[in-house]
Design a protein that fits this description.
Helix content: 10-25%
Shape: globular
Number of strands: 18
Number of domains: 2
Strand order of the largest sheet: 12-11-10-6-5-16-17-18
Strand content: 25-35%
């Protein structure tokens, strides 16, 4: 992989700004063979700052279904102040990550999957202002966490209801210290919804996560928290096939609702994390949600993204056609 000139900028963002790695700290990078060249440069830079950096490589046949089998890494994680999960697939929903953060480690989820042969470290969305993302997140969280039901509609026909009794939403903005050491390169508000309380229809018109952009919108239907029907156009068939590949009925359950916060992100199918981070989108996460505040396990976690949501927290409008509704619109700049 040829490294773009912005590659070094990306390394400095995650090491200096997001994780604030310091001299003498023990850092663990968990990666895989296909992304080792990229992470080797992260390792070198962190070492130049005086950090002690260990690397653990996942096997070349690593899949999402293996990511909950990390008992052998649990002790290693506990011996490191900073952990970077830089694998092809996200580790952020796994129980082992939850335990590491509870033990005091700072964890950054940095899924490396892209569809345009570039390193994620080259992407411009990494330069989003973390403070402005935090401010936007808190505007949403105030009302989401006081509510019981989240309703989402779109002009294309989405009409969804999520219940969240006993669940608390939080956010990611890259910066570990803003979220008690638990963060992700996906700038978003996330909520582990009740796994049997999602109902309605979604018109998918954004992306299919790791699979890329949706060229033609299609409908999916939910009942009692479960995906029960997929419209069978070209992209619906792609989703259907992918869901079946997990060989796990639990992957059909809704585990998460996410709302993008990154105004530099574009939902163009180039990068899984960029797609779901994009401001003006929402996403539905299927399957495992252990580390997000839920109690559900599965052989993986997978997100689909849709555009321009209008969102009500109970009866309070918090987002209108993809734009956050603010008390004083003059006080806020999109960047």
């Amino acid at each position: 992989m040829l490294m773009h000139r912005n590659f070094r900028r990306g390394i400095k963002i995650i090491v200096d700004k997001w994780l604030n790695i310091r001299s003498g700290e023990a850092v663990l990078i968990i990666t895989d063979v296909q992304h080792w060249d990229e992470m080797k440069e992260v390792q070198k830079y962190a070492q130049s700052l005086g950090a002690r950096v260990d690397v653990r490589m996942l096997p070349s046949d690593y899949t999402q279904s293996m990511s909950d089998n990390f008992d052998e890494l649990a002790d290693v994680m506990q011996n490191h102040e900073v952990i970077i999960g830089a694998t092809h697939y996200s580790l952020v929903t796994t129980e082992v990550v939850k335990r590491a953060v509870r033990g005091g480690s700072r964890f950054l989820s940095l899924p490396m999957a892209t569809n345009d042969k570039r390193s994620i470290l080259e992407y411009g969305f990494l330069t989003m202002n973390t403070d402005k993302a935090r401010i936007k997140a808190h505007l949403l969280l105030k009302h989401i966490n006081e509510s019981t039901v989240i309703n989402i509609t779109t002009r294309k026909g989405t009409d969804l209801k999520f219940r969240k009794i006993g669940r608390k939403a939080s956010y990611f903005n890259g910066k570990a210290k803003d979220n008690k050491g638990f963060t992700s390169s996906s700038f978003e508000v996330y909520l582990a919804v009740e796994e049997d309380q999602t109902f309605g229809e979604c018109v998918v018109d954004g992306s299919l996560g790791y699979l890329g952009k949706v060229g033609k919108p299609f409908k999916i239907h939910f009942d009692s928290g479960r995906l029960v029907d997929i419209e069978q156009n070209e992209f619906g068939r792609t989703l259907d096939k992918y869901m079946k590949s997990f060989n796990d009925e639990r992957i059909y359950h809704v585990g998460e609702l996410g709302i993008g916060l990154n105004t530099y992100s574009k939902c163009e199918g180039r990068c899984y994390i960029e797609d779901e981070s994009a401001y003006g989108t929402a996403h539905i996460g299927f399957g495992r949600n252990n580390a997000l505040g839920g109690n559900f396990d599965a052989n993986g976690h997978f997100d689909i993204v849709f555009r321009e949501p209008t969102i009500y927290a109970d009866n309070r409008l918090i987002m209108d056609k993809g734009s956050i509704v603010l008390p004083d619109p003059q006080s806020w700049s999109p960047h």
